[in-house]
Amino acid sequence: MSFDPAKFDAAQALALAHRTFDIEAAAVLGLKTRVGPEFARAVEVMLACRGRVVVMGMGKSGHIGRKISATLASTGTPAMFVHPAEASHGDLGMVAPGDVVLAISYSGEVDELAAILPALKRIGVTLLAMTGRSDSTLAQHADIVLISAVDLEACPLNLAPTASTTAQLALGDALAVALLDARGFREEDFARSHPGGALGRKLLTHIDDVMRTGEAVPAVGLQAGFTELMREMSNKGLGASAIVDDARRVRGIFTDGDLRRLIEKGVDLRTSKAADVMHPDPRTLRAGALAVEAVALMEQYRITSVLVVDGAGVLCGALNSNDLLRAKVI
């Protein structure tokens, strides 16, 4: 088909966009009247599954199925997608007794799905059907039927799957949400399956992963001179230094902010010892704490550096807000 840019109707395009939103919104809201006790049964069956939820679908329903399986897997329900056509040529071996199969087909008459229904029954799976027709072949073979019917596709020709696939996607999301709630799925569980995401970094990163250790940790003794204290701070670049006793237990901290305040007061620092200028009993974190605890501590007390100690109060690390920024925790 040829296209003449001069004939493009921007107003018509915008009107169709608005119409699409209206139709697809109505399709999703219509699910509320179509979904009933069978939905709860489907959730219960999926919760009781000791294998995997195997999602199947052809064409656009297959694309939706892949997304549903990914959402299930990332929210605590072991799931995978198996292409129905490939299942007929060996991939059915991925399906095991005790699995739950979620088969998606709006018409419920897809040949590739119909061809493997008897084999699925012989394997001994529970078959959930997501279809727009309760009288379809797929629905008749299913143990539980979830109706995803829509009154109208958003396509002006009422042909291309649009509102129907939106409804399928919403119904899949509803299953995933109900399942994660029933499992008691928490933020920490979500983070474990999303270690590369922002939430994963926040909930799985420990201060041990980002803190400075060994010679990189600025520290001086209680009797260290002010010049030595300044040299240690400058060399280590933390913006602070720990003040420790002979057993390396933390007794205090001295920061750039403390230096500015002493200068403003006119204190003669040339003869001062570290013990004279330190802030005693500073805020510290125990080794093994989550990095987000460091973030919370810094925000609560408006500080930019935190010392890390072991159970006996011995200095074992330090970090500042820049370390957390580099780790993308904040």
Give a verbal description of the structure:
By secondary structure, the chain is α/β, with parallel strands linked by helices. Helix content is 47%, strand content 16%. The protein is built from 15 helices and 12 strands. It has helices at residues 10-34, 37-48, 59-74, 84-87, 111-123, 137-141, 163-183, 187-192, 198-204, 207-210, 226-236, 256-265, 274-277, 291-301, 321-326, and strands at residues 53-57, 79-81, 100-104, 126-131, 144-147, 219-221, 240-244, 250-255, 279-280, 284-286, 305-309, 315-320. A 5-stranded parallel sheet has the order 2-1-3-4-5, sandwiched between helices. A hairpin with a 5-residue loop joins strand 11 and strand 12. The longest helix is centred in the N-terminal third of the chain and has 25 residues, at 10-34. The radius of gyration is 31 Å and the shape is elongated. The two termini are 51 Å apart.
